[in-house]
Every structure is written in C-alpha cells, then in structure tokens.
Input
Amino acid sequence: MEFKNCKRCKAVFTGGGDLCLKCREEENNSFVKVRDYVLSNPHSDLKTVAEETNVDEKLILGFLREKRIRVTDGLEGSLKCEKCHKPINTGRLCEDCRKQFLSVIKKYPVENSIEENVESDIVHKTGSHVRNHENATLSRGRR
Output
C-alpha cells in the first residue's frame, strides 16, 4: 500500500491520483459549477466565470487544459502556450510548439508512441522518457 500526500491539502491518503477523496470531491463539485455556468453563459470571460462560481481561475484553466470543459467565446484565449505564450484553446502547447517539440523528441527512441502522449501530458510522460534515455546513454558510455 502506497501512502501519498494530497497535492492540495497535504493530507496523507492511499489510492490513485494526486488528490485525497475530500479534495477530489471538492474539485468535482467545482467542475460541475463551472461547466453548468459556462453552458448557460457562453460569452463570460475567465474572471467572470471565476467570480460567479467562486472557483479559482487556476482551477478553471486546469479544466480547460484537461479538456474537461469546452472553450466558449468568452473563455477563448484564456490559456497560453507554455513555451511561446500564444493563446490556445486547450492543452499545454500551441500547434507550432507542439510540432517543434515532436520533431526534437522523435530523435530519441521511446517505448510508447510520443504522439499519443503529447496532448495528454507532455512534461510527465515524454520528459521522463527523454531523461531516462539520456541517463541510459550516459551510463553505457561510462562502462
């Protein structure tokens, strides 16, 4: 049994994910409030959605990144590419930066398809593969 600390409240818990049961329920309740508000008020901007639902803007941006809520007219441009900071509608990278990243990462052999993982979690899945490959290359060279 693996014990973890909740990334939000730091409580110790077991199970999957990064949040304890209480925080996961709170996040799900926040998601429902945001989703319902955005469906009823599609022209509302990020600040208005946050104020009207009493949900933190960062959490709302997380819902957008994870594709849990659809970008509406009011929320368009709320997300920024993590590399070049151009407005995007979902994910972590704009299309240009995504293509650039894929061209660089294809130079390294990986166990799973990079293209399948890029949109879902670019840093954790592909970054660890690259680091592991570089470490393996370095250790082979030292033997």
In short: The longest strand covers residues 3-5.
